[in-house]
Fold:
Amino acid sequence: MSNAALFIDGKNALYRAVYAVKNDFRQQNKSHYFVALLRQYTHWMNKYRPSSVHVFWDAPRKEVWRRDILKTYKEGRDKSAYIEDISEDLREIQEVAAQFFKHMNVRQYARKKMEADDLIYAASVVMRPQEIIIISTDSDFTQIPFMHDNCRIYNPSKNIEVDVPDVHPAVQKALTGDKSDAIDGYRGIGPKKSKLLLESCSGLREFLDIQGRERFVQNLMLIDLSLCPFLLVNRLYIRKKLSEDTSYSKNKIMELIQEYKVNGLMADFVDLILPFSNLKE
Structure:
């Protein structure tokens, strides 16, 4: 076991678990979503052998603080006619996971109006210089290893560790925008042009003198995690959570398996549950 801390983007992992079950046509009786989720978690634990596991939950999308700056923030996600609505599945599995994790030595974090990104950044600051592995497919996290060399990102979709970019990814996105979050960038500025601008301080300054700074400043506030106006409070919250004891209870886990009818978990108890008993409190 290493001394690394595993930081998991909770909602991001839930999406993968739900779609993994829905797209598995090999057997008639499909696994419970929570079983699929634990298969992911234990895979990452076997890969990195962490001393602790930390799960970070998003506040409801319509309530996040970034909506106070940009009303259309993340608007339009999941509304495509070609995307199945799995919001109820996500809500149910998050409730189940949160209850189980209370008794599996897993630390959980959630704050009103905060996204997982905000809390993960705050935790990475608080726990520095401990080695941290962030599990997520969200490209916004690349700014963390860019600023903190004790952090790495593992992308479970591509099964690779993400390379640290050459230029500040948050500043670059402030120029290009982020379509997935409905954040508009500057017209005609993509990854290549923005990188050239950032390689020269005078180049960026001259560009903003001509194109205006208002959009750039607003985008930085939305994207740069170090500029979160609640960073200090988030850091204090993280410290408080870290001071609390975690617990592992086989009896309580068995009760929850019966309560939530988690089909398939008993058969894989040794592989999917017992590894959590070895985590440090």
